[in-house]
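Quick illustration for those who missed Monday's session on complexes.
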Amino acid sequence: MFYNQILLNNKKHVTVRNDEDLDRGFILPRQVVSSTMDLFKSSLITGLSVDKLTEKLIKKFSINETYINGSLLIPFDAPEVWAFGVTYMDSMKERQSESETPDVYAKVYNADRPEAFFKGTTDRIQPPLGDVGIRSDSTWDVPEPELAFMIMNSKIAAFTVGNDMSSRSIEGENPLYLPQAKVYDKSLSIGPFIVPIDNVEDPQDLEVKMSIFRGNNLVFEGTTNTSNMKRNCEYLLDWLLRHNSVPDGTIVLTGTGIIPPPEFSLKESDNIRIKITGIGELVNSVVKV
Ligand code: DO4
Ligand code: MG
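Prediction with magnesium ion bound:
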């Protein structure tokens, strides 16, 4: 099942759907489940899968399926968000071509130790359908469509779709500027759903597609598959947790395999659609920050 959080009558509610395309689903009782974090933690405590626990709640409280039309919140209140980079060959090649110091990208792609960086905290995450930012001091900007996983009890508990907004001009000038290329206002979005790991047959075989529209025109479209990742999610998890404790609910972006061509840069009002099969479609529009 697919879980998210919506604002209804000024209050956060957890909703669940049987299908990602459905506008119908179940709104879980706030007095019992106040957030998706709450639900995943209860699943851990009870030993029941998130779906089983939800089915029990639906039955116990006789909740009927209904149209869901509140405004979308982030699907999960991740206290921290981390990201990995250069996990796909295409990401390595593109970064080499944008950079004045290309060696570092080949080195990290070929090394055992992956590239990990801190991307944000809860209040830095933009909701689905929310705005994502391009920096006013940047001249070359792209979205990065990435499979993201959520960690609970040091294990992968769920997946979502992530957008790791990036300034290629700032990173290209000097890799030491990476934090500024990656972390700024509205530089991160996730959603629309959080999908428990039990519902994802093989996270290393998911199609990722990104389309960018300018007005009614499709100005970029690209696809990849998570099978093209050099380092799989478990490998990334293992490295992230080495000598680095992260809080339950931390979300991890796993790197991009889709990079628009060098002549492409995002513009204000562009509409970005990132779809990962079986996980959901994340839609954002672009603003200058
Ligand atoms: O080295 C820069 C970051 C790379 C990245 O974010 C990615 O490959 O997704
Ligand atoms: Mg990235």
